[in-house]
Structures are given as structure tokens and as C-alpha cells.
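Quick one, probably user error.
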């Protein structure tokens, strides 16, 4: 007879655990306001897990930035991984106290509550459930609390370099407890225009790089972006492109000889960094036919994650759906536009899904929060997956 873990998680215990995680500042070292990166939170996670009597190690990924890896022997060695990241984005411009985990109307507020300390707490508590109730995972279980998801995914990549046998991965991100089998990938570039400087009293003697960049941005907006709705994925919709940053010029009385933008392109399954870049290069070739002096360069990717589109017949998908049905009395499968560490698992050949408490619309916001009942249910779902995989 199969075990049903619905109701096994203690609401107060898991709420206290999440509150303690939120109170630890873990802003990614590459963002404004970081003081220790993941140093203090990795210590906390390690101490919590070792207090449960499980095998746990800290592995340095970057200077003073450690993944925490917990391993519990299962009934066989197929291998499954639960993974959640410890870092957050900046606390700048928040309208609540970012490290003060206030509870209101069943929601806990604070930086990282949704993205993704809610998932982190639930996975840690799932290990608690398994150990304290003497529940042996169906297969070797690895729980990874990783660094650097918010910047360049170097924590999960470091773990995957170990080559551990895994037949499935569950990545914690705010999905409102929906099972996510498809995610868009992302590639970002810096695109630079070089012009010719000159005195602002004689602008015709220079080549204004900002003007050239305006032409390029208008071509992105008016020619390339409108073509995307013609390409669709059943769960993910269409690809997207946006310009997020622009920089150019040195002084108002100097014709600018340089201008650069940062571009974010979200990829559908089947698209690659190179296929997306070719669209940009084709657009540039068209502009050069009108402006032979256009000097524009596309950098190598500054960030890159591949799309995921996990087969619904994979064991990790079926087990996750079954586990949600047991705990929630329902299960919903969806796709999401955001990228996450699941891309790295997919790239390593590990079938993966994304599943966690909270709403992605709350991630990175000025008043971030997560529903505590979702966190409690997530812990039960993760535990159920571990014994049912």
C-alpha cells in the first residue's frame, strides 16, 4: 500500500525555518548590496542538515561561496536530485524590510521568500520528514542548495560536473505548485556601435553612434520583434526579445563615437544561441545596405541557458504529477517563460521539472512574499516524490 504524506509537515516548524532563511542576507555577490554572498546561508543550511544526521558536505564553487550537498542512500542507485538556490537579487528599493520576515494573512514577506527560499525551506524540511519518519527514498537522493543562480548558474554547473548518476531532477522555483515541464532559454548579448567623434558645433563631421544605435533599435522593434508571434510552442507561446540597458556618449558637446545596448532574447525549444544571433546579423546586414558606414558588433553571449521541454512520459514528470495529486488532490502541468537551473540539468542529460511554492510575479518585487500553506504543501510534495520516484 502506497504511503500518502499529506498533512505530515508542521506549519509552525516550516514557517520558522523559512523565516530564519529570509533573515540571512544572501544577495548574490554580483548585485548591489551584497555583504557576504551565500556564505552565511550556506553555513545555516549545512548545520540544519547535519543536525538531522544525514551525510552533508560543503563544496566551494567560487571564493567563499559554497554549495551544500546532502546525500541519502535510497532503495536503488538510479538517482534523483532536489535543487534550490540560496542567492537572491538585491534588496535595493524594497518597500518592506527585506530581512524581516513578517507574516500577514498567511503570507511571509521578505527578500527571497518566493525566489526561492520558500522552495529551499520546503526541500530542507522534506529531508527532515524523511529522516524523522524513517522513510527511505526510492532511489539515491541528492539535495543541493546551490550558489549563483541569480547571476550565472555556476553553482548547479559545478555540482553537475561531478558526474553523479541522476535519472531525474526537481528544481525549486515559484510555480504555485504547478509541475513545469517546459521553460524558455535565454541568451543575452552586448551590441555595440562605433562611430566617429567630433565637435557638437559641426555634427556633420562626425558619425553619431547614438543615431546609428537608434536605427538598429527601431529595426529590432519594428521588424524583428513583430515576427515572433508567428512562432509558437504549445506551453510557452512565442519567443521574445527586449533591450534592457543602453549606454553612449561622453559629453553633451561631443558627437558620440560609441553606444551599446544589452539585449535579452528568450528561446523556445528548438532554438539555439546561434540561430537567435543569426536573426540579429541578418538585420544588421539589411541596415548596412542603407548605411554603409554602420559599424556594429554583437558580443559573445554574456548569459546563456538552454530551453527545457521534458517529455511528459519521463519518470520525474509522472511521479511529480502523482505526488501533487496525493497532496493537493489535483495536479497541473504548465510551461513558464523564465529560465532557471533546470536548464543546466537538461543540458547534462537529466530529465527535469520545476516545482515550488510562490508566484513568479512576486519574485524580485519590492514587497516579495510567499504563501506559507504552499511552502508546507511543497515540503510534502517533495517528500512524496522522493519515496515514489
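Nope, works fine. Designed sequence:
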Amino acid at each position: 500500500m502506497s504511503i500518502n504524506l499529506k498533512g505530515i509537515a508542521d506549519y509552525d516548524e516550516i514557517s520558522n525555518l523559512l523565516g530564519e532563511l529570509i533573515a540571512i542576507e544572501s544577495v548574490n555577490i554580483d548585485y548591489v548590496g551584497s555583504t557576504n554572498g551565500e556564505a552565511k546561508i550556506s553555513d545555516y543550511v549545512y548545520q540544519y542538515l547535519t543536525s538531522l544526521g544525514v551525510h552533508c558536505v560543503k563544496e566551494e564553487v567560487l571564493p567563499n561561496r559554497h554549495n551544500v550537498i546532502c546525500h541519502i542512500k535510497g532503495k536503488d542507485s538510479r538517482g534523483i536530485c532536489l535543487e534550490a538556490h540560496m542567492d537572491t537579487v538585491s534588496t535595493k528599493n524594497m518597500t518592506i524590510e527585506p530581512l524581516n520576515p513578517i507574516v500577514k494573512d498567511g503570507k511571509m514577506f521578505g527578500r527571497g521568500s518566493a525566489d526561492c527560499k520558500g522552495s529551499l525551506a520546503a526541500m530542507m524540511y522534506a529531508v527532515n520528514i524523511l529522516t524523522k519518519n524513517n522513510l527511505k527514498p526510492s532511489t539515491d537522493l541528492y539535495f543541493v542548495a546551490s550558489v549563483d543562480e541569480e547571476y550565472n548558474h555556476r553553482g548547479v554547473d559545478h555540482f553537475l560536473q561531478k558526474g553523479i548518476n541522476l535519472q531525474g531532477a526537481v528544481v525549486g522555483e515559484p510555480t504555485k505548485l504547478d509541475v513545469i515541464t517546459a521553460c524558455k532559454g535565454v541568451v543575452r548579448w552586448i551590441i555595440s556601435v562605433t562611430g566617429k567623434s567630433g565637435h557638437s558645433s559641426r555634427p556633420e563631421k562626425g558619425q553619431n553612434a547614438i543615431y546609428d544605435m537608434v536605427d538598429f533599435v527601431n529595426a529590432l522593434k519594428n521588424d524583428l520583434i513583430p515576427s515572433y508571434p508567428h512562432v509558437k510552442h504549445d506551453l510557452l507561446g512565442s519567443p521574445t526579445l527586449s533591450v534592457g540597458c543602453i549606454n553612449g556618449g561622453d559629453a553633451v558637446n561631443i558627437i558620440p563615437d560609441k553606444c551599446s545596448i544589452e539585449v535579452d532574447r528568450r528561446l523556445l525549444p528548438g532554438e539555439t544561441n546561434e540561430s537567435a544571433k543569426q536573426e540579429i546579423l541578418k538585420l544588421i546586414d539589411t541596415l548596412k545596405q542603407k548605411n554603409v558606414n554602420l559599424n556594429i558588433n554583437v558580443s559573445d553571449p554574456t548569459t546563456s541557458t538552454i530551453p527545457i521541454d521534458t517529455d511528459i512520459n519521463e519518470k520525474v514528470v509522472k511521479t511529480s504529477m502523482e505526488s501533487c495529486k496525493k497532496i493537493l488532490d489535483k495536479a497541473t502541468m504548465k510551461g513558464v517563460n523564465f529560465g532557471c537551473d533546470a536548464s543546466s540539468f537538461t543540458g547534462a542529460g537529466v530529465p527535469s521539472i520545476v516545482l515550488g511554492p510562490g508566484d513568479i510575479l512576486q519574485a524580485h518585487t519590492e514587497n516579495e512574499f510567499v504563501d506559507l500553506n504552499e511552502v508546507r504543501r511543497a515540503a510534502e510534495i517533495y517528500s512524496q516524490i522522493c519515496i515514489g520516484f
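The chain has a mean pLDDT of 97.
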